[in-house]
Design a protein that fits this description.
2 helices; five-stranded antiparallel sheet; 101 residues; alpha+beta
Length: 101
């Protein structure tokens, strides 16, 4: 089993003060990370992943350093989850880790 940090999108709520001194609830999408265990037998392919859009970079800036590298993993099998996940690890490091296991 591989222990990785998965990157996923979530919606957070926050209070916003409007011009009329009213407080309203706002929502925004952001990226979060969580630890996960992954069975390497279900990995079909890995690719380097780059968050290139300005909105993605803005969502990442709140939680991650600018030097963070990411990889995309394609998984095999029928699951209620997506067949692709993004992890907080460089492609090269992930490839070495998979070769060693």
């Amino acid at each position: 089993m591989l222990k990785l940090n998965e990157i996923y999108q979530t919606t957070v709520k926050y209070e916003s003060l409007q011009q009329s001194d009213k407080v309203s609830m706002q929502r925004r999408t952001t990226y979060e990370s969580r630890e996960c265990m992954l069975n390497p037998d279900y990995i079909v392919a890995i690719y380097p992943h780059y968050f290139e859009s300005s909105s993605d970079r803005k969502m990442l800036a709140d939680k991650f350093k600018g030097t963070e590298q990411f990889a995309r993993i394609v998984l095999d099998g029928n699951s209620f989850r997506s067949s692709e996940i993004i992890v907080s690890m460089s492609y090269e490091k992930l490839a070495r880790l998979l070769v060693e296991t």
